[in-house]
């Protein structure tokens, strides 16, 4: 494999390859929708180049608060927020040796309580109350006193999901960062300072050398909070405050329909109840004719409950006329023989789902597309796995109803532009992130529709970064069923725009400036731990007559050629 420059800012290179398999994250377990072309395709030698359509992956939102201090001033149970010139305490105090900070001179008021201790996360966050002792599978790292997210979770999505981690403060929460952090208690405040580096030297990293990221939080006796940013090499993180929900729930609407006797009772939607929690969370409850299947039941796998929200004018009165602005999906999954469970997917929605009796409930924040929208059309459906009897109805449908969105606002803001006149806010945050991850179905369809169904495997490389903390990627497949030794059944071929030849692909593109795409480590790159490429330089050099690392040797470790 050789290195190639890209033609444009939006290019993605592709090559034939057999990929190593990595289990999907929760985000990859979402319902597969049909793929569509997202760019213009051309060829350069034995490479394929995609020039993405404008806005195909949304827009990036990179950190813009260096040399600024954010001030969060209590206003009852809420906060006013404003950005001002940098305030910085150069006396950090002692370095923390544990995640726990205990206060001796005052208790800090936050989220309706007064705290004399809290946890400080090495990745730039603070959490209050009881914290998990062990790491759940798939999280970004061991709990260290702060918050955590799924390993492959985009920051743009994780920012709203962190509402489930409340009470917490994200000063500059960026997974995989590390380094010393300090705490100094004074009579009227406690000062917490981080001096972190982004991960470096590993095949999953974007840099060979340490980077400088210095930022600070001041928690004051009166409950005010300051977040200061001295020097930041990183451009993506989550910043904000997450007090715990009060649980105040205000009904918004109830949509009812007639029963469908031919549909299984746990799929027959009778009512769709909408409410607003704390003025920021839209709560949706599916009420079915009979009890929903409990988590742990194998039959949960593949079940889907979806709520569609359409803000396009004129608002539709039928499903055929609808073009949903966004969809929230509850899906039953049982990945790799783990007990079945329900997970929610969609912009702004929490992954957590509550299944009880004959109800399934999910909640989330309104995505940006609905900010300022007064009325929407909402409809719903349920669906059983396709393997069920094709002669019987697979689920139920609820027609569009007009609902007025009142008493709800998004907690996501542009922090650098806020003044004391804005708010007050209960929960308030901003996600700084790169471009959105492309859908694997869209990538395969873009190539196959343009060049034909003649690819077995596709590996993607981009000249832009996407909203992921790792440069490497798991793979998606098998799509087809002809991979020797796997013999998995074919599935969703039409969604990938293939008749069956296409088998596997990268879940996401690998950035061409990441470590694994460099010819060799640069001169002076530090030798790291046994997790880093540089630790094996001597062994790798022995493979070459000139005792130099083979060019692009580590890029090939992402691709195993058969």
Keywords:
six-stranded antiparallel sheet; globular; disordered N terminus; 3 domains; 562 residues; mainly beta
Mean pLDDT: 86
| CA(first)-CA(last) distance | 14 Å
Provide a count of the helices.
3
**How big is the Rg?**
25 Å
Poorly predicted runs are 1-10, 15-31, 133-143
The secondary-structure class comes to: mainly beta
Largest sheet: 7 strands, mixed
Total number of beta strands: 31
Helix content: under 10%
How does this structure look, described?
This protein is mainly β and 562 residues long. The protein has 3 domains: 11-59 and 435-558, no CATH class; 68-244, no CATH class; 249-404, Sandwich (Immunoglobulin-like), CATH 2.60.40.10. The protein is built from 3 helices and 31 strands. The strands form 6 sheets. Strands 1, 2, 3, 28, 29, 30 and 31 form a 7-stranded mixed sheet that branches. Strands 5-4-15-14-13-12 form a 6-stranded antiparallel sheet, with no helix packed on it. A 6-stranded antiparallel sheet has the order 6-9-10-11-16-27, with helices on one face. A hairpin with a 2-residue loop joins β2 (39-44) and β3. The model is unreliable at 1-10, 15-31 and 133-143 (pLDDT under 50).
């Amino acid at each position: 494999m050789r290195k190639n420059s890209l033609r444009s800012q939006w290019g993605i290179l592709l090559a034939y390859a057999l990929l190593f398999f990595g289990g999907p994250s929760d985000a990859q377990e979402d319902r597969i929708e049909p793929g569509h072309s997202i760019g213009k395709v051309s060829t350069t030698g034995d490479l394929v180049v995609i020039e993405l359509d404008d806005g195909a992956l949304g827009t990036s939102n990179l950190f813009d608060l260096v040399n600024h201090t954010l001030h969060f001033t209590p206003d009852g149970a809420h906060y006013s927020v404003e950005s001002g010139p940098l305030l910085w305490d150069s006396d950090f105090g002692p370095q923390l040796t544990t995640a726990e900070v205990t206060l001796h001179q005052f208790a800090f008021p936050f989220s309706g309580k007064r705290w004399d201790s809290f946890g400080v996360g090495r990745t730039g966050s603070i959490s209050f109350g009881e914290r998990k002792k062990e790491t759940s599978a798939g999280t970004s790292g061991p709990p260290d006193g702060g918050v955590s997210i799924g390993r492959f979770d985009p920051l743009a999505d994780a920012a709203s999901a962190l509402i489930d981690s409340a009470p917490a403060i994200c000063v500059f929460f960026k997974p995989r960062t590390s380094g010393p952090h300090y705490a100094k208690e004074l009579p009227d405040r406690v000062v917490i300072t981080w001096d972190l580096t982004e991960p470096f030297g590993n095949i999953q990293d974007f840099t060979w050398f340490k980077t400088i990221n210095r930022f600070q939080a001041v928690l004051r006796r009166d409950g005010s909070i300051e977040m200061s940013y001295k020097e930041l090499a990183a451009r993506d993180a989550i910043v904000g405050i997450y007090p715990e929900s009060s649980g105040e729930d205000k009904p918004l609407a109830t949509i009812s329909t007639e029963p469908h006797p031919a549909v299984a009772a746990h799929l027959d939607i009778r009512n769709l109840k909408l409410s607003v929690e704390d003025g920021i969370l839209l709560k949706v409850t599916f009420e079915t004719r009979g009890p929903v299947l409990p988590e742990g039941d194998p039959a949960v796998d593949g079940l889907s409950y979806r709520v569609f929200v359409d803000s396009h004018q004129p608002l539709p009165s039928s499903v055929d006329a609808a073009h949903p602005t966004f969809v929230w999906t509850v899906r039953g999954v049982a990945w790799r023989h783990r007990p079945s469970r329900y997970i929610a997917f969609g912009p702004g929605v929490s992954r957590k789902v509550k299944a009880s009796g004959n109800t399934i409930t999910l909640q989330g924040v309104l995505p940006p597309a609905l900010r300022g929208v007064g009325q929407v059309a909402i409809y719903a459906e349920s669906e059983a796995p396709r393997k069920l009897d094709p002669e019987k109805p697979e689920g139920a449908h609820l027609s569009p109803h007009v609902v007025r969105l009142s008493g709800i606002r998004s907690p996501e803001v542009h922090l650098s532009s806020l003044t004391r006149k804005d708010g007050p806010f209960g929960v308030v945050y901003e996600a700084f992130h790169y471009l959105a991850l492309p859908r694997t179905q869209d990538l395969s369809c873009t190539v196959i529709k343009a060049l034909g169904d003649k690819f077995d495997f596709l590996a993607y490389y981009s000249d832009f970064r996407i909203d992921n903390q790792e440069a490497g990627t798991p793979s998606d497949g098998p799509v087809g069923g002809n991979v020797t030794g796997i013999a998995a059944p074919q599935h969703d071929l039409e969604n990938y725009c293939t008749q069956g030849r296409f088998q596997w692909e990268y879940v996401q593109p690998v950035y061409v400036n990441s470590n694994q795409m460099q010819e060799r480590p640069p001169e002076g790159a530090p030798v790291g731990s046994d997790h880093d490429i540089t630790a094996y330089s001597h062994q790798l050099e022995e493979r070459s007559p000139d005792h130099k690392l083979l060019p692009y040797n580590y890029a090939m470790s992402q691709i195993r050629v058969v």
